[in-house]
Structures are given as structure tokens and as C-alpha cells.
Amino acid sequence: MLVSIELWARPGIVSLPGGFPAVIWGLAASPTAAPQVPGPVIEATVGDMVEITLHNMLNEPVSLTFPGQEIAPEPVLDAGGRLVSLTRFAAPGRSVVYSFPAYRPGTFRYESGTSPERQVQMGLYGALIVRPAGWDDPASSNYYTAYGADTGSGYDVEAVILLSEFDRAAHEVIATGAVYNPLNYAPQYWLVNGRPFPDCVAPPDRSAQPLTSRVPVLAGQRVLLRLINAGFLAHTLAFQEGPARVVAEDGRPRRSPLLDATYDKNAITLGAGQSADLVFTPPEGEHYLYDRDLLHLVNTDDYPGGMMALVDVRPVFPVTPPQAPSNLTATAALPGQVELTWINNAADEDGFVLERRTGAGPFLRVTTLMVGATAYTDTHVEANTTYTYRVLAFNLAGTSAYSNEAVVTTLP
């Protein structure tokens, strides 16, 4: 079967904690869709032929590489014999096509092969999942397995957990076309599926950061976590209540008919570019997966934040979204801050998403708040600036409508 995918590389805007906009170079699944970070998850089944067309809407050459796949590299050199790109690229305004067979199941990544020290940091990366033949056939022994029968990789619920870092200063330099020195790499944000905590546990949306890292699970279900480190640094992920069974590493199962080399871990370290597949059956409750480096659990200097995911195990799921908040008010009582309050009309919310826009600009996420929140102090504001706020509630069934909008002008 031919799996044909088109991706558009172009600039976009993401929201960092506090409602700060930042330029990214993302990948979109259609000409009109927002470019996103990470890129769309590419899925195939063993036996498929994968064909990916990359359309370059950026101002510099762009390519994609697919580590672990049977696709021959075609490095590009300049006239002086220096490496320009790890593989064929699309010049600005042009397209390039990559084809490869999906020959073995596994958890992989794809990423830019042209100036990757710039373009991967800017957001040109994503997950590639190859499933075994028969994975969706109840009559097959490969049904709902990550690597096939007798690999210990059976599951009921799966989730991709894609790790990365975000250096805001690097993005500002690269977006202007200035020379970027990767030796100055100093990330301030630590992302899971393109968002830092607590925003990463908010529901999926249509922004440039559409993916959540909240994994809904019914009690008794087996969970498969597909961990991928797309960042430049190593990360050690710990389980709040471990252990989990490591069934594969770097797209290679650790169990075969001759040897079972799977093992239990309470924490697992992924080097840059590595992946691992973990299976476990968590008890009812909220189970956090988090980076053990405390410096990776902040957003700049705000704690808690950073690299966290949530496995949310319940006996039942809600069937309707929560009611919308109301009576949102915004008051500039002191310089450098806005006091926000609202009425919580829901009894079954999992949290709230607070958004803000500056002047007539787009709404951007300021923060994600937990159950029962009815107030927030926004300290990430400029003097003498008009802001508009809105808030919504969410649970596992979806999101509410937005509250009323509240407009405020900050003090000098």
C-alpha cells in the first residue's frame, strides 16, 4: 500500500509560558493548516511504501531525514567539497520527494537534514511510527502490538512522548537570518510534544502546538509509551509510580523467541536522537512522567514547568465537556500585573486554559490551570498596553466554550 504524505515547511508562531510569542519553522499537513511543532505524526504499516513530499516555504533550503529507514543518504556538497546537507533538499519555493519501504515496525523520528543545528531547533522534526502487519486485525497474533507477536509489546492504549528543548534566543537569531553559533545553545524551555508543563496536559487544539501529553487510560488497560528524544541533550525520565517494562530501544525489540532481554526501569535515560518503548499497567490515579534534572522542570525560572507528561487512569471517562466559565474580570491594580477572576460553572473539569491577546493580535495561551481555579495573576505584561483575556474549561471529553472576554490596559 502506498502511504502518500505532503508536508509544508513554513514559519509560524508558538506561545511560550506567560503568553510570549516565539517564531518557529514548523511542518503543516496541508497548504492552509498551521505549521506545527512537532510535525505531524507519520504512520505506516510494515509492507507499505512511504512517499513524503516536502514543500519548502522558507527562505533557505530544507530537507528531511528518516533515521532507521531503508533510504540511502544523498549528501550534498558545495563547490569546495563542504557538506551542505545530509540529503537532497528543497530550495525555497520548491519541493522534494522521499520514498522508502516500511520494512520493520518501530518508533522512529524524522528531522531536517539541512543545517540541523538550526532547523531542528526551529521545529522541523516529528515522530514516525511503523506498525506490524495485522496490528489492527483482531484475528492476527500481531493485534495491538508495537513489534509483533512474542515481543512483549502488547498494549491497549498508546501515546507518543516526544522530547525536545527550546532556546528562545536561538529562535530570535535564526528567524532574522543572522549567523547562529550552536555553541551558545542554552534552552530555557523543556518540551513534551511541543509544550512545557503545565500546558502540555491541556487538551489537543488547532494551534501551532496541537499535541497533548495527557494520556487517558481506563483502569486495567496496558499502556505503551513511545518515547523519542528529538532534542540535543540527554534526558532521564522518571516514573512517579514505576516501574515500566522496556520492550524496545531505538526501534529494536528486546524480546525474540530465543531471548527475553526486556527489563523494568523506574527511570530511563534517552540520549539525543534515541527512542524507547515502554509497557506498563498503571493503577487508578494520576501518574507523572518527568525529567529527573530539576533544571528541566522549570519554564525559565518558573517552577513547576518543563518536561512532564501525565498518564491519567480512571474507572470511567466523562462523556460531555464541562460548562464554560463566566464573569471573567481583568483588573490592573498594580504596575506590571493583571488580576483575573472568573466563576467556575463546571463540576467535572480537569483544568482551565487562559488565553490573552495584545491589541488586535491573535490569542495566545498564557497558562494552563488545574482543577477548581478561579483566579490568576498575570505578571508577564508590559506597561501601558491593552490586553484581552478569555478562559475555557476542559476535561477528557473536550473543551467548553470560551468565557466572556475581559479587556484591560496596564498601568504605566
UniProtKB/TrEMBL annotation:
Q: Which GO terms describe its molecular function?
A: copper ion binding; oxidoreductase activity
Any idea where the Fibronectin type-III domain is? 324-412
Please name the PROSITE patterns in this protein's record.
Answer: FN3
Q: Which Pfam families match?
A: Cu-oxidase_3, fn3
Task: Identify the keywords attached in UniProt to this record, alphabetized.
Answer: Copper, Metal-binding, Oxidoreductase
PANTHER family noted in UniProt: FI03373P-RELATED, MULTI-COPPER OXIDASE
Q: What is this protein called?
A: Multicopper oxidase
Q: Which organism is it from?
A: Moorella mulderi DSM 14980
